[in-house]
Give the backbone structure.
Amino acid sequence: MWYHFVLILARGVFWTFGGVKGVDEGNVPRTGGLIVAPLHVSNLDPEAVACGTNRHLRFMAKEELFKGKLFGGLIRSLGAFPVKRGEGDTESIRYAMDCLEKGQAVLIFPEGTRGDGKHIQPINRGVTMLAKRTGVPVMPVGVVGTHIAWPKGQKKIKRAKMRIIYGKPFTYAEVATGANEKENREIFARELQLRIANLCAKGGLALEPS
């Protein structure tokens, strides 16, 4: 109830800045473990992706966000958990696996960090590993408009129409057709990157691979 109460408030806040619209929200499975894998171009992305769907999401977020007691406590109460970027944070990975195995939906930014709104970055190995080890579906998500409202380096939020395009989930096993596991990981990463880019293009944002 607390999550959905905050979700209603967040949708109201987004409305004042131009609104956020979920596209193809029917692609979001209502139950079962799910890796939610959106483009990442703005600090608004987690909230925007959550506002576009009624599915309760957990969030893997950089540990720096949890240092402030007020904000850190708020995002923890909404299901966020910290991860150390640039390190092999096995504790966070195990926690994410546990959530997925319990049938929860976990939002993980597959690029690992925010992009510039012009390029899509390589897919992080952690997402590939989670998809392979848990076997749960991965849902690519296009994010359009947040790069205008609050891009990296901009101090203030400005008005912009934001669209979240939810793609059809797929599993690691469905695309792992390579000769060995190294090749399978590369195939999966390219497929996820391509699907995210195509969803963004559907929403009007053309991206080049970096």
